[in-house]
Amino acid sequence: MPISKSRKARNSRIFFAIFGSCFLLPGLGIFTFKALPELKRWLSGAQLYSAEKESLMAALIIGIVFSLVGGGLVYLGLKKPTDDPALLDSGTPWMARKAWASPVIKDSFALSGGFIWAFTIIWNLMSTPALLAIPKELAKGNQLIWFAALFPIVGLFFIGLSIHKTLEWRRFGQMRITLDPHPGAIGGQVGGTIYLKTPLPPGTDMDVSLDCVHHYQRSKSPSQ
Predict the structure, then answer these.
(1) What are phi and psi of 193, to 5 degrees?
(2) Whole-number Å distance between alpha carbons of 77 and 181
(3) What's the confidence (pLDDT) of residue 4?
(4) How far apart are the C-alpha atoms of 1 and 82, rounded to whole Å?
(5) pTM of the entire structure?
(6) Quick check: 157 pLDDT over 90?
(7) Residues 201, 167: Cα–Cα separation, whole Å
(8) CB 101 within 8 A of CB 94
């Protein structure tokens, strides 16, 4: 018996909630029982050795990162779905989603740009201990520590990428496209008009591509 789209959506939310809790609970545990007591002791004026400071920083970073990632996944799993279950399995499933029901589609930079910046911050936080350990390990003659420098270098790349994407958004603003026809048909016509905040000079060449971001196959056999 085929599984309905609404059932698949509910199963996905349950998976996100369970999978996110695998990060959220350890993250909260590390932050609450390891990082927080050491942080309070340090702020109270207690002297911490170098190894204790490194352990505190690692616990803070891991605890915060795991809590944020896990909390986000749990939120995705527990939040109320915006799709209309009755329309998901109808002849017009695109009407079930608010973003698809209208022929006017706005770009998702607010979401994708936020994700890029969040990933950049998390990556650089996790690579900070490796960066701070380089001078000490080099003093010990450990040349292999240079491999750890790859993580901060990649972090710089992510910072540059995030800044580049942000500057693009500031230049063009929020783009929107009006589909005509709506919706585009598989094997048929897909067209529309793209509106930009900043006008482009006449004759500017633009490369436009259409990608499939979701594909599924439904069997005609009732036993599958």
Answers:
(1) -125, 130
(2) 34
(3) 63
(4) 26
(5) 0.57
(6) yes
(7) 19
(8) yes
Provide the mean pLDDT of the chain. Answer: 80
Phi, psi of 176 (to 5 degrees): -140, 150
Q: Structure tokens of 205?
A: 């060449």
**Helix, strand or coil for residue 80?**
coil
Task: Report yes or no: 167 and 132 within 8 Å, Cβ to Cβ.
Answer: no
Closest CA to 88 of 103, 101, 69, 72: 101
Alpha-carbon distances of 116 from 6, 19, 131, rounded to whole Å: 29, 21, 21
CA dist 218 and 221 (Å) reads 9
pLDDT in tens, 168-206: 888 777 788 888 888 777 777 888 888 887 777 888 888
Within 10 A of 186 (CB to CB), how many other CB atoms are there?
7
pLDDT in tens, 55-68: 888 888 888 888 88
Domain range annotation of the chain: 7-81, 90-106+174-208, 108-172
| Residue-level length of the chain | 224
> Residue 63: left if φ>0, alpha if ψ -120 to 50, beta else—which one?
alpha
Which tokens sit at 212?
């499939």
Place of tokens 């209208």: 102
Helix axes 109-139, 50-78, angle to 10 degrees: 160
Kindly state the tokens that stand for 113: 């740009």
**In the numeric block, which tokens belong to residue 58?**
């690692």
Give Cα 178 to chain centroid, integer Å: 26
